[in-house]
Specification:
The chain has seven helices and ten strands. Helix content is 25%, strand content 34%. By secondary structure, the chain is an alpha+beta fold. Strand 2 (28-35) and strand 3 form a beta hairpin. Strands 1, 2, 3, 4, 5, 6, 7, 8, 9 and 10 form a ten-stranded mixed sheet that branches. It has helices at 52-58, 66-70, 110-117, 138-144, 155-160, 163-172, 182-185; strands at 11-15, 28-35, 38-43, 47-51, 72-75, 79-88, 97-101, 104-107, 125-135, 148-152. The longest helix is centred in the C-terminal third of the chain and has 10 residues, at 163-172.
Length: 188
């Protein structure tokens, strides 16, 4: 039996078809922190009903960048749905930043959104509302129950792969075709 890495930070959780909870069905979550107290991550493939223009307007941040305003904001998870999280590739000293892994950062501060609005932000960024959390031992139990695959995270999947392709795209990184699994098709 294979063992989990000491930490799953900078890994993706890919929901297996047997995970039917509507909040997490067919999701991909980037794990940002994982230690003996539990785990925190953000979903990276579920669009919300908001655009970045909606979020910036609510925060009274102005931008003339139409592409930026039209960017889809993701549903990052059921915890703190009113709070924004920015996953990005810029090592600059943004306030409230956490290095998730090589070249991937999580920032929760306003300064990064202001910089993005001015055209001075990270080259790649995903904005999410909310996050996902797991209590001590909960994530490990869910993995043992075959609810999730774990896949090393990479910037290409996070920033370049279209949202609708991330679920299968993440699983294919370790050779799994989710559409061939029994629970997805309903057949053996």
């Amino acid at each position: 039996m294979s063992r989990l890495p000491t930490t799953l930070a900078h890994h993706l959780l890919v929901a297996l078809p047997s995970l039917t909870d509507p909040t997490f069905a067919r999701t991909v979550a980037l794990i940002c922190q994982h230690d003996e107290n539990g785990a925190m991550g953000v979903l990276v493939n579920q669009p919300s009903e908001y655009t970045l223009g909606d979020v910036l307007a609510q925060m009274e941040i102005q931008t003339d960048d139409r592409v930026l305003r039209d960017q889809v904001v993701l549903n990052g998870g059921p915890v703190h749905p009113e709070r924004g999280f920015v996953i990005h590739d810029d090592a600059s000293g943004w306030d409230s930043s956490l290095q998730v892994g090589q070249g991937v950062y999580l920032t929760t501060s306003r300064d990064i959104l202001e910089a993005m609005a001015r055209g001075e932000g990270p080259r790649h960024a995903l904005v999410t509302l909310g996050c996902a959390g797991w209590a001590e031992g909960q994530l490990e139990a869910e993995i043992a129950d075959n609810s999730w695959l774990t896949v090393p995270a990479d910037a290409e999947l996070l920033f370049d792969t279209p949202l609708e392709q991330r679920w299968q795209g993440a699983a294919s990184r370790i050779g799994v075709d989710l559409f061939r699994l029994t629970d997805y098709s309903g057949n053996v």
